[in-house]
Design goal:
- A six-stranded mixed beta sheet has the order 6-7-8-3-9-10, sandwiched between helices. A four-stranded antiparallel beta sheet has the order 2-1-4-5, with helices on one face.
- It has 233 residues and is an alpha/beta fold.
- Helix 3 runs parallel beside helix 6 and helix 4 runs antiparallel to helix 6.
- The longest helix has 16 residues.
- The chain contains ten helices and ten strands.
- A hairpin with a 2-residue loop joins strand 4 and strand 5.
């Protein structure tokens, strides 16, 4: 579905990705884990078209997309939910959600809203509330809901549990599994390694801009190096 080969990306003279290769299989949750600065967010931004690669290829359903504009990539079905939510804090919940549906037909907007409200009933209750007045967990719901409005085939989530209370973290990962069961492929960047690999069909470990380990979520959770480096075990 989404295949990345030998991807190299730099910020000026600073090399961020060194020949990254991975494949995202349709219908799965793929976890990308690693420490801060490993290159996880850089990879998502490059897939989204927000950054340009120096070399390498990104193919979606066999079509090269590494030179496309971000809006075109969204229209193809690849949608990123950024780290830190990046909401429009002075707009209502409803208006934030509608901003996510700018690439779809007007006639389909209500169906997309209904879909989001099934996953996040609280947002239907709060749809007229100003987004900046919501709790952190509710704001994360809006951010993910906004991404779902674009009818993604691949949803890329960047640190969805960041800053959430422990009970909300559990709830967030249940939502991610529900989204996946609805037919959306998920590429999950997450520092909460235990939770990420617990829900992932496959995982990749990044260090200093390189993929250093891959396997099923269960295999990586059982790997001694992963347990020592990322689980404190």
């Amino acid at each position: 579905m989404l295949k990345i080969e030998d991807l190299k990306v730099a910020y000026g003279k600073i090399q961020a990705l060194w020949g990254v290769s991975l494949e995202v299989t349709s219908g799965q949750i793929i976890a990308l884990v690693g420490a801060n600065g490993a290159g996880k967010t850089t990879l998502l931004k490059t897939i989204s078209g927000l950054l340009r690669c120096q070399s390498g290829t990104i193919r979606y359903n066999e079509k090269p997309i590494e030179n496309l504009m971000p809006g075109d990539i969204v229209r193809m079905g690849i949608v990123q939910v950024p780290e830190g939510r990046k909401l429009f804090p002075e707009m209502t919940v409803l208006d934030n959600l509608l901003m996510g549906g700018y690439t779809i037909k007007s006639a389909d907007l209500q169906a997309r809203l209904d879909h989001v409200f099934v996953i996040f009933p609280r947002l239907q209750e709060r749809q007229k509330q100003i987004a900046g007045t919501l709790s952190g967990g509710e704001q994360q719901m809006v951010a993910i809901g906004r991404g779902l409005m674009a009818d993604p085939k691949v949803l890329m989530l960047d640190e969805p549990s960041l800053g959430l209370a422990p009970f909300l973290v559990e709830e967030m990962f249940q939502v991610i599994e529900e989204i996946n069961r609805s037919g959306v492929t998920v590429l999950l960047v997450e520092q909460n390694t235990q939770h990420a690999l617990s829900v992932a069909h496959k995982g990749f470990v990044m260090e200093l801009g390189r993929i250093v380990l891959s396997g099923s979520g269960e295999e990586l959770l059982a790997d001694e190096n992963v347990r020592k480096a990322y689980l404190g075990l």
